[in-house]
Amino acid sequence: MSSPDTITASDRDHSGNWAVRQLTVADLRCWDRLTLQLNPGLVVVSGPNGAGKTSLVEAICYGMVGVSPRTTREADAIRVGRQAFHVELHVDGPHGRQVREMGYQPGLGRRMRIDEVPQRSVGLWRASGSILVFLPEELRAVKGPPAARRRAIDRILEGTDPTFAATAAAYTAAVTQRNAMLKRIKGQVAGVAGLTPWDHAVAEHGAAVATARSTMILDLQPRFARWMEELGGGPGGTLAWEPSPADLGEMAPDRFHEHLEARLAANRTRDIQAAQTLSGPHRDDVWIGIGDQDLRRTGSQGEQRTAVLALLLACRELLSEHGVTPILLLDDVLSELDPGRRRRLLDALVGQGQSWITSADPDAADLAAASGATHYLHVEDGHVAATP
Amino acid sequence: MAAILPSSVERLVAELAKLPGLGPRSAQRLAFHVMKAPPERAHALAEALVEVKDKLRPCSECFGFAEEELCPICADPRRDMTVLCAVEEPSAIIPIERTNEFRGRYHVLGGALSPIDGIDPEDLRLDELLERIARHGVTELVIATNPTMQGEATALFLADMVRDRVRVTRLASGLPVGADLEHADELTLGRALLGRRPI
Questions:
Q1: Is residue B12 located within the same domain as residue B81?
Q2: Which of A178, A287, B50, B174 could, after both became Cys, cross-link A240 (CB 3.0–4.6 A)?
Q3: What average pLDDT does the segment A211-239 reach?
C-alpha cells in the first residue's frame, strides 16, 4: 500500500470524466517548454493577446484528437526556428489514467503514442467525445455548410453510441457503391437491375443514421434552448433536424428504412442522370434558430457565437448524462457576456469534469476567485504563473 | 542503383512479394530460406506450384476447385442436389464443409457485387446458377456470401432473383460459440440481438 501522504484527494477521483492532469508542451507556437500539473474543475487562463493562451487549448486538442481547431497544417504550430513540436498529456478518462503523446515533424508526419505504445492510426488513437472546443473565430457549426453541422451532431453520437461511427461509415460506403452503380448505368456499362441491392443498403444504413441523428437532436433541443436563454440569446432557441428527404421529419423512425428505400426507387431516373444519390442523410442539415429566425443565414456574429456556445454546453450536458463529462475548452468567451451571464456560465462549469476558459480580460483573476476555479494560470512572456 | 543480389534471387524475391500478405522484407526472408534449403526441398516446392496450376480447374458444376471434370463434392452421389449453397469464392467451401452440417452442394459465384470495383451482376455466375436450379429441381438456396456490405448486397440481389422459384435462406449472424458476451463487438452483438429466437 502507498503511504497516505503520496495520495492526494483528487488522485482518488475515479469518476471516469475526462481531465488533463499533466500537460507538457515542447516547441509549440510561442512555447519553448512547459509542464503544468492540474486537477479536475475549472481552469482559468488569463494573459494579454498573443501570450499563448489559445496554444494551450490547441495543445490539449492535439493530445486528445490529433488535430488543431486553428489550422490543418501542423507545420504552422511549430515554434519558429524549431523542427518539431511535441505534446504529452497525462489524462484521466473512462479507461483510467493514460499518457497520450503526439509529435509532429515535417517530412516525418504525426507520431502518436498511448502509454509509450506507438499508435498506427489517428483514427484508433483519438479519444472520441473527450473534448468540446469553442473558438470565437470558428463559427462553422452555425454559419458553415450543412456538413459542419452534421459533423457536430455526429461527433456527439460517437461519444454516446459506440456503434455510431461504424454505422456512419457503412452508410458512406453504401452511398459510394450506389453512386458508382449510377455512374455505370448512366454510362450504359451496367443494367438498372443492379441498383436494387444498393438502394436497400443505402436505405438500411441511412435509416440507422437518420434515427440516431433525429433522436440526438431531440435530446439536445431543450438543453440548447435553455442555454441560449442563460447566455442572453433570448427565448425560443431552436435546434431541429432538417432531414433529407424532408418528409422523414414527419414520420416515426421505424418507418425510415421503408420510406428511404421507396424514395430511392422513385428517384432512380433523376439519380442516374446526376450519377449520384441526390437525397439521403448525407444531405441532412440542422436548423439553428431563435423563433422563426434562421441563425445560420441571418444571425449576427454575436448571435451565432452564442448559438455555438449554447450547442457546446448542451452537448456537454448530454455526454455527462451518458456518464462521461468531456473536457470543455472555451477560448475567449467571457468578454462578450455581461456579469450575470458570466456568472451562470462559470457556475455551470465548476461542478463536474474539467473546463478550460481563456480570457484577456484584466479582471479574469477576480472572476476565477469568485467562481471557485480550481486553477488560475496567468500567462505572460512565455511563462505561467499558477495559482495554486 | 546496382543490384545487390544475383538476378536469380532478385527474381525469386520479386515473385514472392506478389503473394498476398508478403512485403519485400518477408519475401526476402523466404527467398533466403529457399536458397539455404537442400535442392530436393526447393524442387518439391516448385513442382507442387506447377502441379496445382496444371491440374486444378474449376468444377464444371459448381466452379469450386476440381482436378477432374467434377469436384469431389459434386461427384459424390450422396450429396443432396436439391439444396444449393451460394458462396463468393471456392475458399469459402472449406470452412462450411468442416462443420459437417451441410449435405447439399455449392455454387461459387466468383465474387460479390461491388460497382466501385466494376463488379456487376453480369460478372457473377448467375445464369449458371439459374440453369442448375432448373436442371436439378433445386428447392432451397442457402446464401453464404460474406457478411460485408458487398456480400449482403449480393445476397439480396440473389434472393430477389430466385425467390419465386426456390426457398431462399441466409446464414445467420451472431455470436461465436464458446466465447464470453463481454468480448463480443457491438456490431456483432447488435446483429445477434436482432436475430434472436425463441427457445
A1: no
A2: A287
A3: 94
The pLDDT, as a whole number, for residue B3 is: 63
**pLDDT for A151-192, tens place per residue?**
999 989 988 888 899 999 999 999 999 999 999 999 999 889
* pLDDT tens digits for range A43-81: 999 999 889 999 999 999 999 999 998 888 999 999 999
CATH assignment of the domain containing A359: 3.40.50.300
Contact check, Cβ <8 Å, B153/A189:
no
Pick from A130, A110, A155, A136: nearest CA to A20:
A130
A190 chain-B contacts, CB cut-off 8 A? 115, 120-122
Domain enclosing residue B42, as ranges: 7-55
List CB contacts (< 8 A) between B120 and chain A. Answer: 184, 189-191, 194
Q: Is A335 on the interface with B (CB under 8 A)?
A: no
B192 shares its domain with B140: yes
Closest Cα in chain A, distance from residue B182 (Å): 14
| Domain tally, chain B | 2
Whether residue B63 is contained in a domain is answered as: no
- Domain range for A175: 152-212+246-285
Count of the separate structural domains present in chain A: 2
B153 assigned to some structural domain:
yes
Is A137 inside a domain boundary? no
Which residue stretches of A196-294 are H helix? 196-230, 256-266, 268-274
Indicate yes or no: CB of B149 within 8 angstroms of CB of A201: yes
All three cell numbers of A368: 476565477
List Cβ neighbours of A112 (8 Å cut-off, separation of 6 or more): A66, A100, A101, A102, A118, A119, A122, A125
Classify residue A302 as exposed, middle or buried by CB count within 10 Å of its CB (0-12, 13-18, 19+): exposed
- The answer to whether residues B114 and B182 belong to one domain is yes
Residue A36 scores a pLDDT above 90 = yes
What CATH number did the domain enclosing B33 receive? 1.10.8.420
Residues B136, B86: one domain?
A: yes
Q: Determine the Cα angle at A139 with ends A133 and A141, to 5°.
A: 75
Using an 8 Å CB-CB cutoff, list chain A residues near B162. none
Whether residues B79 and B144 fall in one domain: yes
Is B121 close to A162, i.e. CB distance below 8 A?
no
Q: Which of B150, B153, B190 sits opposite A163 (nearest CB)?
A: B190
Indicate the residue of A162, A180, A184 with minimum beta-carbon distance to B186.
A162
Beta strands A383-387 and B65-66 are unpaired
Q: Do B154 and A197 touch (CB under 8 A)?
A: yes
User: Tens digits of per-residue pLDDT, B103-113?
Assistant: 999 999 999 99
The kind and range of the H/E element at A177 are helix A164-186
